[in-house]
Design a protein that fits this description.
mainly alpha, about 475 residues, 20 helices, globular
Length: about 475
């Protein structure tokens, strides 16, 4: 029953990822051509500024909320108590963030060019804190999240094509993008009454402020080489460089979403196992998760690097050639982040190794600050890509070293070596498709995807022998019979 529900949740989460992925693939090529690289850079800059202040509004509430709700095991009163406490902390932090953002808009001269966008984005800040996605992840209502996400994404895509047609519509595009967050917040709050109720009588403000703050510091430090990276680039260079980097980073984020779909499903389950001190089951899940994520992320990385010219041209169009090299530099982060999520989300966080998570982020943030100063002013978008890569490497080295030293994680070195060797054909397939076939970009990508997909199935079944792939095809065979 455990594995059945886990697989079901994973499939729901994959559908969420696919909905976001498909929506991005539909909307992004259209919008990037309508707005052009400079206005794409401008809206991306505003989006990232708002996202940065949203970090202060949420801090670590999502991580703590998911973990603590999962521990309640569906008990209405216990869930309501956790929900009320976490929401009280979020409300307090959101108020502070709104004040800081308002002051920044009027005091920082570089922000005044984006004043209208940032004021519109303030609604995104408010409703991001009201989305309470962590509640539904904690109670494992991934079916609801999937249905809601798909519906809203469909409406968003339709709205973009109806109302955005040229450069003059960039404000409409931004309003629609903010509108997704607002609508999600409204729906989530209404639906939450089925599972929890909010009451000030149940609030334990101090109890949750500390862990929310600690994981929040962790997220803010991580943002130094993700969200803040774009803001720094915009302040140090111009909207065109932001447009190049944001394009590369957006495509990277879409690919990384496949990896995150699994880790967000497994976190509440791991928290529940940790609460019951089921160490053997935790170790087994970590081992299986690492094998799966490493197996999936490596070919994604290889394809992203070798086929980036074709991907950028298809999705962004002419004028975005400056995003190719940043994308190639960023792509190894897919593997690094995927592996790190297994370590942090499945080992360190459920076992409450909070200080280790924080230290890993401090190392990544310090690297980001130093490398931003060194690289970004001179190299622009390429420099920002190098900042992301180097920061992730330094942070992950510490996280893995700590987890291995404390024996909360054991890396399957034999499997890693086998996986690296078995990935050589991906390099041959993607290089041949990209450099030797002389086909148009769409045909090149389709051929590479089909051949790589076929090889992945064969490799997973007969070389790597991944249980989840084997079970998937066994279920299909069973349904056919």
């Amino acid at each position: 029953m455990y594995m059945a529900s886990l697989k079901k949740n994973f499939l729901y989460n994959i559908s969420i990822t696919l909905a976001n992925y498909i929506a991005a693939l539909i909307v992004f090529p259209y919008v990037s051509r309508c707005l052009g690289v400079e206005l794409m850079g401008k809206t991306s800059f505003a989006t990232n500024v708002v996202a940065y202040f949203s970090l202060f509004a949420l801090l670590g509430a999502a991580t703590v909320g998911t973990r603590e709700i999962a521990i309640c095991n569906g008990d209405f009163e216990k869930c309501s108590k956790v929900f009320s406490s976490v929401m009280a902390v979020i409300g307090f932090l959101t108020g502070i963030s709104l004040i800081l953002m308002s002051v920044s808009i009027f005091l920082i001269s570089q922000f005044q060019e984006y004043e209208i966008l940032l004021l519109i984005g303030s609604f995104s800040l408010i409703f991001t804190s009201l989305q309470i996605e962590w509640l539904y992840q904690g109670i494992e209502k991934f079916d609801y999240i999937a249905k809601r996400t798909i519906l809203i994404r469909i409406l968003y895509c339709i709205s973009i094509f109806l109302f955005v047609h040229d450069k003059e519509d960039y404000l409409i595009y931004y309003i629609l993008t903010v509108g997704i967050v607002v609508v999600n917040g409204f729906i989530n709050l209404i639906y939450s009454k089925t599972y929890v109720h909010f009451s000030f009588k149940n609030v334990e403000f101090k109890k949750y402020l500390k862990p929310v703050g600690m994981y929040g510091v962790n997220k803010i430090l991580i943002s130094m080489y993700t969200t803040f990276n774009v803001m720094f680039l915009g302040l140090a260079c111009n909207n065109i460089e932001v447009g190049f980097y944001s394009t590369a980073n957006k495509l990277f984020a879409i690919l990384l979403g496949v990896i995150s779909a699994f880790t967000s499903v497994i976190l509440p389950r791991m928290a529940s196992l940790a609460a019951n001190n089921n160490v053997e089951k935790i170790n087994d899940n970590i081992s299986k998760s690492f094998s799966l994520i490493f197996s999936v992320s490596l070919p994604i990385c290889i394809g992203g690097i070798l086929l980036s010219p074709q991907i950028i041209d298809i999705l962004a169009g002419p004028g975005y050639e400056g995003a190719i090299l940043p994308m190639q530099i960023i792509m190894p982060v897919v593997v690094l982040t995927g592996a790190a999520q297994v370590c942090i989300m499945q080992a360190l966080i459920p076992l409450k190794k909070d200080k280790a998570v924080l230290l890993a982020s401090v190392i990544g943030a310090a690297t980001a600050v130093l490398f931003n100063i060194i690289f970004v002013g001179q190299l622009g978008a390429i420099g920002s890509a190098l900042v992301l890569l180097c920061s992730e490497i330094c942070s992950d080295i510490f996280a893995f070293g700590y987890a291995i030293k404390k024996r909360v994680l054991t890396l399957p070195w034999c499997f890693i070596v086998k996986r690296l060797i078995s990935s050589i054909p991906y390099i041959a397939i993607c290089y041949t498709a990209g450099k030797c076939l002389n086909l148009n970009n769409i045909a090149t990508l389709l051929i590479a995807l089909l051949i790589c997909g076929f090889y992945f199935v064969v490799e997973s079944l007969f070389v790597l022998k991944l249980p989840i792939v084997r079970d998937f095809f066994a279920e299909i065979k069973k349904q056919i019979r």
